[in-house]
Amino acid sequence: MRLLGKIAVVTGAASGFGAGIARRFVAEGARVILADLNGEGAQILADKLGDGALAHQLDVTDRAEVTGLATAVEAQFGPLDIFVNNAGVTHLPTPLETVSETDFDRVFAVNCKSIYLASQVFIPTMKLRKCGVFLNVSSTAGLSPRPNLSWYNASKGWVNTATETMSIELAPFGIRVNALNPVAGETPLLKSFMGEDTPEIRAKFLSTIPLGRFSTPEDMANAALYLCSDEASMITGVCLRVDGGRCI
Q1: Is the pTM of this model over 0.90?
Q2: I need a labelling partner for 37 at 20 to 30 A (CA). Which of 18, 83, 118, 240 fits?
């Protein structure tokens, strides 16, 4: 029960890494708001997790909706302790000059602007309380970019830099900020990263990961639990690779 009594928000919590993190947080005693554009999916998972979970439909790129989330959190559970910026999207693998402006804008809105908005809405109260944890889900793409995902790579590089600069500015207020950098995992985004999902393409991708497998929601949940728990009270500004050695 390493998060007993903690209040947490996990964005993109209806599936994939976000769902894994939400499950583990509830199991460890936290009360968790599962925020996702897929409100129905978030509700299905919340029902499975019981009284410790609450579903909330959310567009992470919309300031009014993020503000509404803060109101709902306060009303249902009280002051927030942990915010996990997990929601993310990518564009399909394609030469950088052919990515549409619509796809570019969507990638940066979901992957980057969402962190900006969550910070503006939730950080002031954390500052007043002199405590809080922000965890941003980045990617190995922001550390070791690969061709044809250029703007996705760039957005995750932004997340890593934002994590470090947020950690320095917010440390005097007792707020810790870290990031997770997973390699591709068994999530709804996997096919988008690879272009298509075939045994041959999977084998080629897995050959670049020394441990020989994808990141799993459980891997991410374990790392998130540690960084968001009091055990990591001296850790801030870390971009932790959960990548099976991919970036070495």
Answers
A1: yes
A2: 240
